[in-house]
Write a structure and sequence with these properties.
Layout: H1 3-20, E1 33-39, E2 45-59, E3 65-75, E4 78-94, E5 97-107, E6 112-119, E7 124-129, E8 134-139
Antiparallel strand pairs: 1-2, 1-8, 2-3, 3-4, 4-5, 5-6, 6-7, 7-8
Amino acid sequence: MSLKRVLPAVLLLLSVAPSAFAVTFFEPKFGVPYHCDYNNPVYPRINGTSTFVWQSTQFDAGNRPIHRTIEYFSIQGGQENVKATFAKPVNKRVHLQIDHTTWEFSVLNGVQCTQTDIDADREIVFNGCDDGSSRYCYPLQ
């Protein structure tokens, strides 16, 4: 087989191959209000709304996204905000289909939740939090 016939096929394969290995993760709906219900909430948080406002995205050594956000959330008599990060995503499969993505959620100088699950409906379950709290949040839009 001549190089003239092989080279176009190799170039085509190389141009398609990277997209075949692209990994997608279930992520929060940034800028959309969520309703959140807490189990063992830490003051000043209460059941109410949270909105994750996207600030930036970087990528770790494994090319996984690190999303930096500001979370606006309900407190008694108003609203508060903190800097937060969604990092280290890992897809979890059920019957060969991606069921949800587990993230590590960290608040700057605050709580860290190592088992934060986001599903296809963008519902978020915060578990494994080092302050003993957990919460379930679903998007309002």
